[in-house]
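Appendix B. One record, verbatim.
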Amino acid sequence: MESEQSSAIKKLIDLQAPNGGWPWFTGMPDNRYITQHVVTGLGHLEHLGVARYKDDSKYMAMLNSALSYLDARLAEDFEKMKQQDPKYKENCHLGYTEIQYLYARSYFMEEFPVNKQAKEAFDYYKSQAMQYWNTQNNYLKGMTALALSRFGESKTAALVLRSVKETSLHNEEMGMYWRNENHAWFWYQAPIETQALLIEAFDEVLNDTKSVDEMKIWLLKQKQTQDWKTTKATTEAIYALLLRGTDLLGSDKMVSISLGNEAIDPRQMDEASRPEAGTGYFKTSWSGTDIKPSMGKVKITNPNPTVAWGAMYWQYFEQMDKITSSETPLKLSKKLFRETIGATGPVLEPISESTPLKVGDKVVVRVELRSDRDMEYLHLKDMRASSFEPTEVLSGYKWQDGLGYYSSMRDASANFFISYLPKGTYVFEYRLFATQKGEFSNGITSIQCMYAPEFNAHSEGGESDRSINDNHAPTLQRQMALLSSL
């Protein structure tokens, strides 16, 4: 590890420009945001006692050069602003770049004080942060609180975080989080980094362990159904999860699980089923002859102060029209309509026992999908009766109502592959033709998150109709209740 750290520090020294800044890539000009981001990362390592390079003259010279570069850029901004606004003392000139500077600079104030040329600018933006913190989003408020606390303004820092906490939401499953954040594409609008930074702030400024542990739950639940898109998001999240509040890996006690009178001890299982080191993950199963009615009563006891979760599945064979609906945080509902042409255009009428289909009728399938959280990599499969043929048979990517997905029509089902599903409600529609006489079962519709397979749901089975005469195709008496969740 020490060798790897030394190699990384050498790369940073080699990449640093003569003026102290770092570019994004070699050959590009120095970049202020990148430099502040690197300095913040070095501050994290110093703050946690991971990097111990105070005796390394090259490392200290690199850090001093970077901080001098940032001080000089802040002083330049200050001079330009004074020329443009004579009443600058009365107006707000606090931006995200200045807040990031204060946060990065706060890690090294004792060893590397602000130079004299930038002292007036530093004092000005510090006072601006104390006065205008309430105009910023949660990410920048967290940075402001941490910086002010380290600068000796603990009362204002605590006020900032109390304000942030008042707008938080609490949920037993999702923990503590914020809904009304404008998450977009700028670095100061990133949701994972925002949560990680607020964990650091609530721990350091307020010493609020309860809120910190609840916010960690939200981070973990996001990882359960999504991937963290960038190395920056991943490193910030790991920093917050492992090194703030309760140590998630500090206890190796196993969760106690019993099914009826049978206790589950994973340590007594065969080697392939034993708990995974670090995470404690394990999996076991029973065959049909081993399953007893008493096993339907499950008791779980978690002796650890941190969150734990799992999933239990019951798999069995059933007649298609006897299947009942199932849902998780995903929820589906499905309806079938006959499409006719009226005086004003297409008209949809529900299919019922009193309005059976005829060969040649056009049928509209409408599937409503609801999710109570953001998810990624989902497969929605809608089975159809063998008497139906789709009007569209070509596969391809589609965009509808803010949702992109890949559609694939197969012989017996319609498949939709969704790479990213934001929280909300979505409707899928496609058209079929009734092509055969008879009595048919319409099958079920199912959805599963490929990233977290425990998040799945399906509809109830479509019940076949009573006898159909030669002039009619199938009547789908029971409409499928596709997965649903919000």
